Amino acid sequence: MLYHLFDYFDTALDLPGAGVFRYISFRAGMSALFSLIITITFGHHIINWIRRQQIGESIRDLGLDGQKAKKGTPTMGGLMLMAAIIIPTLLFANINNIYIILLLITTIWLGTIGFIDDYIKVFQKNKDGLAGKFKIAGQIGIGVIVGATLFFHEDVVVREFETPVSIEEGVVDTPAFRDLKVAKTTIPFVKGNELNYERLFGFLGDDITPYLYILFVIFIITAVSNGANITDGIDGLAAGTSAIIGLTIAIFAYISGNAIFSQYLNVMFIPNSGELVIFCAAFVGACVGFLWYNAFPAQVFMGDTGSLMLGGVIAVLSLTLRKELLIPVLCGIFVIENLSVILQVSYFKYTRKKYGEGRRILLMSPLHHHYQKKQIHEAKIVTRFWIVGILLAIITLATLKLR
Questions:
Q1: pLDDT tens for residues 28-72?
Q2: What DSSP designation does 231 have?
Q3: Is the peptide bond before 175 cis (omega within 30 degrees of 0)?
Q4: Contact criterion met (CB below 8 Å) for 98 and 149
Q5: What is the pLDDT of residue 6?
Q6: Tens-digit pLDDT profile for residues 146-167
């Protein structure tokens, strides 16, 4: 909103200083700052309101140290995250941008699904929450919207330049270019690193390609969203990991939206994707600000309201920037947590069927509970997971200069 207001001040009224809103770096900084202010300054008011509504966490007895002490801790803190992402984005981003619209819809959509789940758990005292089939249906719904938009919307294009973009005497020389309406992505760690989905699925027929692409988008969003949800098991783990991932994606967004940097670093240039830096800044600011209250010992939990939304947003950001194949590395913590549950359950069922008794690979799943069972303090577990997350982010960024 402020973007359009100051654009009017600059172009119509020639107001001195109004042109600063044209700079992505300025708006991203303001977005992150406002996000931090919303979470840190107003966070305790929100927590007190949640506590007055008696929105406390119902803890299942898993036999973990310090678990019972968390009983009654306010949950639904994901509402703080949603506010800290949406408000700065509306203020500082160009809300006519298709990518911004898509991310705002994703934030509200998945946040609402998580809120309904938390509401059922807390107010209706049903520990199972929203039935899994309804969660999946909601994730499929947003997957269809995102997939169809990215495949069909006329503003979602990739730009190719006939000659390199150059700067001479401070003036950017933009050569002739063409905008391609093509569904392609980046293959990490491979020379000539582009994959065209239309060619990949083309042998099945052009008519079926959009449906296969949308199914792939649904899988990505569902997997990452559920991965973040599973990771949100101990204080600060999901929020801190998401902040690291969000900052990494912000770097990709800035490069992908800059004609010079994208060519120099061999990154696909996506027109108007630079606007996503403002959203990413709000996202990172929200996660860091939330850690002010969610770090051990947590004063508030994000609940499914936050965790489902964070994972879904990360997935959609990766898809819009054509970096979804980097998710197994960038979101490695989410992937490992997801796999730990899948392997544990599968192995238990297999051994019970074969030997008559179920056996376990881990002491408990997800993986972070395994380390808790080994009597490692949860603050140390979280810190180590963050370190691994930073290393995975560095590996992801190392793909930038691979030619």
A1: 999 999 999 999 999 888 888 888 876 776 666 566 766 666 777
A2: H
A3: no
A4: yes
A5: 63
A6: 999 999 999 999 988 877 776 6
Mean pLDDT for back-to-back runs of 10 residues, the chain (403 residues): 68 70 89 96 88 70 65 87 96 95 97 93 82 93 97 93 68 74 87 81 81 95 95 94 97 93 88 96 97 92 94 97 95 96 94 89 93 93 97 91 57
Backbone dihedral region for residue 17 (phi beyond 0: left; psi -120 to 50: alpha; all else: beta): left
Neighbours of 144 (CB within 10 A): 15
CA-based nearest residue to 67, from 226, 237, 296, 289: 296
Exposure class string for 78-117: b at 16+ Cβ within 10 A, else e: bbbbbbbbbbbbebbbbeebbbbbbbbebbebbbebbbbb
Tell me whether residue 28 is exposed, middle or buried, using C-beta atoms within 10 angstroms of its C-beta: 0 to 12, 13 to 18, 19 or more.
Answer: buried
Paired strand residues for 393: none
Cα 233 → chain centroid: 17
Residue listed under structure tokens 């963050």: 386
- Alpha helix segments (H runs only) across 153-271: 197-200, 209-231, 237-256, 259-264
Q: Please enumerate in sequence order all residues whose Cβ is within 8 A of that of 316, keeping only pairs 6 or more positions apart, or say none.
A: 102, 103, 106, 146, 221
The DSSP symbol for 274 reads G
**pTM exceeds 0.90:** yes
Question: For residue 179, what is the DSSP state?
Answer: E
CB 181 within 8 A of CB 153: no
What is the secondary structure of 338-402 as a DSSP string?
A: HHHHHHHHHHHHHHHHHHSS---SSSSSSHHHHHHHTT--HHHHHHHHHHHHHHHHHHHHGGGG-
